[in-house]
Design a protein that fits this description.
Blueprint (H helix, E strand, L loop, with lengths): L4 H10 L4 H18 L1 H9 L24 H14 L9 E10 L2 E10 L3 H5 L5 E2 L10 E4 L1 H8 L9 E4 L2 E8 L11 E4 L1
Length: 192
Amino acid sequence: LRFHREEASRLAREVPLKPAFTLAICFALFAVTLVGHPYRLFTNLYRSAPYADRDRLLTVAVDENFVWMSPEELRDSAEGVKRSTREFTDFAAYAWRPSNVRGPGGLEHIRSARVSPGSFTLLGIPPALGQTFDSATCVDCTVISDTLWESQFRRDPKVLGRQIALNSHTLTVIGVMPPSFRFLDREIAAFI
């Protein structure tokens, strides 16, 4: 810049406008992502969801401004759709929201989901530990993701029956989903 002020100023104005510069920036960002999390990047992009019969699975979603449904509304809406149509073999509903969980690992910000009975059976993924709501009936229970099991319980195999506080409501862990399980929203870590 000291000896070639005019040339340096011209390049500073012109180079960012060229397609090659934009491609170089995109490539650099991709390289940084690849170096930081190569396994997660490729497994999330190219691994298909591990659901049973996934070619016949239809997901219907509403926008993020939709109201958090009470358990009764969620159950009744799922049952209503099952009764009203013959196009679907089965139907399950869920509603998610940002939540706070506190367990042995401390406070953690996650997403939790309220699911209707039969959700896990419909997806065809059995738990890695314990059971889901499809085979157990309890009011204050939760099934947690593998990620939450790691962060809160350090993969303790004796996690079943232990408690966590989800939004200040105490829940008992009855199941842990396998690492391959990805719910429709990947960030959901606790199911009620």
